[in-house]
């Protein structure tokens, strides 16, 4: 889904961690937190609660600030009307180095090749993890389970996404109502949301935005918690994050 606003802070964090932000701004690297960026004495902030950006600039100044904010060239930002989608960001962030940034995991890059992000052909993280998982599961089937087959194991199926029809009976999934009903009816239910800073497939700020619009009562909202890791979509693919997650999980379960 081309929802650009909740992605904005996630794009900035990834651009900062990649080192591309300072190059784009032509100055020192901006100071980035979850919800604000400070650069050249200016501050850009976004809050999921208000659902709007607060930019105290107009016209070309805003465009230049936005460009420095996410690390892309000004021409690309203007072309997209300040609404940069993930595919364009991954292709453009390190484009001057002829590199593509991973969508599932922005820590990974590969030289630009043919293919599309929608089909996984251009995403280095999808290709890397898909190959690893495919080889591992095929070896497990044959060597440990003794199961022999000529069927192809598909680690990530793109066909359902490309053929999905957004009609009245088959719209995009919206879990906000389900989450609110479940947590409101069961005051003991706890929800733990895990976020990877390098994940542009399910960005951390998009998750914050969704849960901030669930509109739970204060007593129920205390049962909702977030934890952030310097990983991509699959936290367990980054060893330090995996180890920290194990500790966090034990603490979370024991606290419950």
Query: Quick one: how many beta strands?
Result: 8
What would you call the structural class?
Answer: alpha+beta
What gyration radius follows from the Cα positions, in whole Å? 20 Å
Helix/strand order = HHEEEEHHHEEHHHEHHEH
Tell me the overall shape. globular
| Major sheet | 4 strands, antiparallel
- What is the subunit organization of this protein? single chain
What are its keywords?
256 residues, alpha+beta, four-stranded antiparallel beta sheet, two-stranded antiparallel sheet, 8 strands, 42% helix, globular
Structure description:
The protein is α+β, with helices and mostly antiparallel strands. It is built from eleven helices and eight strands. It has helices at residues 8-18, 20-25, 59-70, 74-79, 86-92, 124-144, 159-163, 176-185, 204-212, 218-221, 239-255; strands at residues 31-32, 36-39, 42-47, 52-54, 99-101, 109-111, 191-196, 224-229. The strands form three sheets. It has a four-stranded antiparallel sheet with strand order 1-2-3-4, with helices on one face. Strands 5-6 form a two-stranded antiparallel ribbon. Strands 7-8 form a two-stranded parallel sheet. A hairpin with a 4-residue loop joins strand 3 and strand 4 (52-54). The longest helix has 21 residues, at 124-144. Residues 1-6, 24-32 and 47-58 have low confidence and may be disordered.
Topology:
Elements: H1 8-18, H2 20-25, E1 31-32, E2 36-39, E3 42-47, E4 52-54, H3 59-70, H4 74-79, H5 86-92, E5 99-101, E6 109-111, H6 124-144, H7 159-163, H8 176-185, E7 191-196, H9 204-212, H10 218-221, E8 224-229, H11 239-255
Parallel strand pairs: 7-8
Antiparallel strand pairs: 1-2, 2-3, 3-4, 5-6
């Amino acid at each position: 889904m081309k929802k650009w606003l909740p992605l904005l802070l996630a794009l900035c964090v990834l651009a900062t961690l990649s080192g591309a932000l300072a190059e784009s701004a032509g100055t020192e690297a901006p100071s980035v937190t979850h919800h604000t960026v400070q650069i050249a004495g200016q501050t850009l902030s976004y809050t999921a609660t208000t659902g709007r950006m607060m930019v105290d600039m107009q016209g070309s100044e805003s465009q230049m600030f936005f460009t420095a904010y996410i690390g892309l060239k000004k021409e690309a930002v203007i072309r997209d009307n300040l609404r940069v989608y993930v595919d364009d960001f991954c292709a453009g962030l390190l484009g001057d180095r002829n590199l593509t940034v991973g969508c599932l995991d922005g820590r990974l890059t590969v030289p630009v090749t043919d293919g599309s992000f929608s089909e996984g052909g251009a995403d280095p993280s999808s290709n890397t993890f898909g190959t690893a998982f495919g080889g591992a599961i095929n070896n497990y089937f044959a060597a440990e389970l003794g199961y022999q087959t000529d069927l192809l194991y598909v680690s990530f199926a793109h066909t359902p996404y490309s053929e999905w029809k957004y009609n009245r009976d088959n719209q995009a999934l919206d879990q906000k109502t389900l989450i609110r009903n479940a947590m409101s009816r069961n005051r003991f239910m706890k929800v733990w949301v895990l976020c990877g800073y390098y994940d542009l497939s399910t960005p951390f700020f998009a998750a914050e935005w969704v849960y901030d619009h669930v509109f739970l009562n204060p007593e129920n909202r205390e049962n909702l918690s977030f934890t952030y890791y310097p990983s991509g979509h699959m936290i367990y693919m980054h060893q330090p994050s995996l180890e920290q997650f194990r500790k966090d999980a034990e603490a979370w379960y024991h606290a419950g």
